[in-house]
Amino acid sequence: MINEMLEERKLPSLLVMNDGRAVTRDIFAERRAEMLAILSDKVYGKMPASLGETTWEEVSCESNIRGLAQTRKINISFPTPYGESFTFPVSVTIPNSASADNKLPALVFISFGYLKYYPIEEILEQNVIVAEIQISDIAPDSSQDEFKEKMSRHYFTDGQREPDSFGKIGMWAYAASRVLDYLLSLDCVDADRVGVMGHSRLGKTALWAGANDERFTHIFSNDSGCCGAAITRGKEGEKIPRIYLKFSYWFCKNFSEISSSVEDSESTYFDQHFLLACCAPRKLYVASAAEDTWADPVSEYLCCVAASPAWELFGIDGFVHPDNLPEAWDRFADGNIGYHLRPDGHFLSRHDWMRFIDFLKK
Ligand code: GCU
Predict the structure, then answer these.
(1) Does the beta carbon of 292 lie inside 6 Å of ligand 1?
(2) pLDDT at position 117
(3) Which of 271, 302, 301 is nearest to 288 (CA)?
(4) CA separation for the pair 73, 274 (Å, rounded)
(5) DSSP letter, residue 177
(6) Rg of the chain in Å (alpha carbons)
(7) I want to staple 176 with a disulfide (CB 3.0 to 4.6 A). Which of 61, 209, 339, 346 is the partner?
(8) How far is Cα of residue 339 from the mean position of the Cα atoms in its chain?
(9) Ligand 1, atom 13: closest residue by C-alpha
């Protein structure tokens, strides 16, 4: 049943190189580079090359959460093209149990800054380190700054972007990688379990961050929908022309070219399973919500199925799932792609967090 549903979407091949060669495990790295190049060029814009070391400075360190943890406020800085560095804050909460002898998993949480989305006490009780960045510190989530403020000011003269320069999603994702630079310098962080997570537009961002930066071992997307974890062809709810109309600043300028054609399988040679496959063979987790029809849980589920062959190429399980669509409360997390369908609508709940943490700690 699921394969038939997928066939109807008429997706471009994941495991065929642009020149027609079949992708084997030995050349998957080349295929991943091709897929990243397509997504960079047409959707999210290019990630800038690193211009030097990321540095950091601790601004404060306080005991927090009933003495369970400490919260360090850190300013992260990285060099930018015009010579000055860009600095943004991150709030890193570290359970007291963490040490060089007891390394803990860590998560970069790309955040809107809403506390209701962050059950921090329960997360800490699970012995996970969380580094929270707020996107407004990196680049405002709006087109009103005309790409002249915060990080943009260091990359564009007078807001002028090249056709393939990154948009806001790319900037937030780049910043998540700079936080990872910091986390990996801590001897209490388990480098084999460092994830990136975000909800909705920030789920799209977490996927793009994880697709690009292979040091992220676990990638978590919550309700990311259109241009995130949902297949575009045949998608319900939000579609490309609409996301482009309202949120073109999330993407590169070239996105305008595909905004009308992406659902036409003849003229567009990618879909969102390419994005998920760029995370292979690492651990990926996609969470959907049953009533979130704008994001489209069915298209998110099918995208996991479509991306799975990239993992299987490595002789490991990709998405292990039954031959039917999921029902609310279903969770499939035996393979290297995990998925759950929560009841209700579009938000980041305690339930989602706890399932992510299970997967990170597994
Ligand atoms: C809008 C947008 C979505 C996005 C969501 C969010 O609904 O259309 O693409 O995921 O905002 O970020 O909450």
Answers:
(1) no
(2) 86
(3) 301
(4) 36
(5) H
(6) 19
(7) 209
(8) 15
(9) 200
Tens digits of per-residue pLDDT, 205-245? Answer: 999 999 999 999 999 999 999 999 999 999 999 999 999 99
Residue 35: how many CB atoms within 10 A of its CB?
21
Name the token pair of 279. 């995370």
Task: Tell me how far CA of residue 4 lies from CA of 157, 240, 286, 324, 360, in angstroms.
Answer: 50, 24, 21, 11, 32
Q: Whose C-alpha lies nearest to ligand 1, atom 1? A: 201
Give me the pLDDT at residue 260, please.
Answer: 66
Ligand 1 contact, 238 CB (< 6 A): yes
Placement of tokens 């399980």 in the chain = 317
Nearest ligand 1 atom to alpha carbon 201: 12
pTM for the complete prediction? 0.98
Q: Supply 34's token pair.
A: 């091709």
- Going from the Cα of 283 to the center of ligand 1, the distance in angstroms, rounded, reads 24
CA 231 to centroid of ligand 1, rounded, Å: 15
DSSP class of residue 250 equals: G
pLDDT at residue 116 in the model: 79
Cβ contact 179:327 at 8 Å: no
35-48 tens-digit pLDDT: 999 999 999 999 99
Q: Is 168 in the pocket of ligand 1 (CB under 6 A)?
A: no
| Residue whose CA is at the smallest distance from ligand 1 atom 11 | 201
CA 243 – ligand 1 centroid, Å: 8
Position 272: which residue type? Q
Residue 195 C-alpha from the chain's centroid: 9
Tens-place pLDDT, residues 149-158: 999 999 999 9
Q: Residue 2: CB partners within 8 Å, gap ≥ 6?
A: 302, 305, 321, 323, 324, 325
Report the SS3 class of residue 237.
coil
Tokens representing 57? 């400075």
